[in-house]
Amino acid sequence: MFLNVNDAEIYAEETGKGKTVVLIHGNGHNTTSWAYQIDVLRLGYHCFTYDIRGTGKSSSLPNLPFNHVSDLEGIFNAKGIMNAYLIGLSLGGLIAANFAHHHPHRVDGMVLVSSDLAGAPVSSDYVRFLASLKLAMRTGGPEKVAHRYLTSQLLKAPMSKPVVAAKIKAMLEGYMWELFMENAPTGIVKPISRLELPEIKAPTLVMYGEDDLETFKSNAKILAATIPGAGLVSMKGCGHFPHLEEPDLFNSQIIQFFDSLR
After folding, report:
1. What is the DSSP letter of 82?
2. Helix (H) and strand (E) counts for the chain?
3. How far apart are CA 67 and CA 187, in angstroms?
4. pLDDT band for position 64 (50/70/90)?
5. CB 101 within 8 A of CB 73
6. How far is it, in rounded angstroms, from Cα 201 to Cα 204?
7. Per-residue pLDDT for 192 more than 70?
8. pTM of the model
9. For the chain, percent of residues with pLDDT exceeding 70
């Protein structure tokens, strides 16, 4: 289905019945990123996934600033979702945390996976990763930046597993690499700071891969230590995408968490 939200066409899918779980993917992914989770969650929950603006089948990035959090609010309103659980991966984690802060009455619980965190310390390997993508986009265009992304340290652990590597490559087909152009709009407007994390009211589970970049491991520990009552789960043998790398273990953790909130 397509939803008209804030002058954008947002592609979305839904399945299952019960409490709504909204799954928010990260950069380079789309709704198919959550296939392993939906196969299980749909048996007891209403699962709702969407392609964030600039990815998948949704509208491309606009030239003007936009707001992923406002897009998520528009999706809630368009679908008549009063409140829900959230699962956010990487950029999706940043979106989920900001949404939970700004709309506490609409989030009954959330899982932040390999999450971005505005204002957190950034490791040198992540700085080099972002700089290399922007340089590749500037000097070689989408083909070069895609190669640089797939061979980066961020994807070292996920790409070492053939099934996961194939899924990642499939999600990148048609990806709008303009995201990595200089001055591209980020879609994150005035993100909450670390000082505001204690104001989040939603029960929270934070997850990260032990083989991820140091930035994301640090983010996870900061989030878990700062959001009141948050739990922390480290996933052994996983990099940035534990939901793809160890889906059975990942699924058991999120189902146990959501079941505890009922």
Report:
1. -
2. 9, 8
3. 4
4. low
5. no
6. 9
7. yes
8. 0.92
9. 93
Name the amino acid, one letter, at 56.
G
**Domain layout of the chain by residue ranges:** 2-121+186-261
As beta bridge partners, residue 48 has 14, 22
Q: What is the per-residue pLDDT across 152-179, written as a single tens digit (0 to 9) for each?
A: 888 889 999 999 999 999 888 877 776 6
- HSE-CB for 143 with a 13 A CA cutoff: 1
Question: Could you give the dihedral angle defined by the CA atoms of residues 10, 53, 166 and 218, in that order, rounded to the nearest 10 degrees?
Answer: -130
Helix (H) or strand (E) holding 164: helix 162-172
Total number of residues shown for the chain: 262
**Whole-number pLDDT of residue 181:** 61
Place of tokens 């709504």: 20
Site of tokens 């804030």: 6
Q: Is the CATH number of domain 2-121+186-261 3.40.50.1820?
A: yes
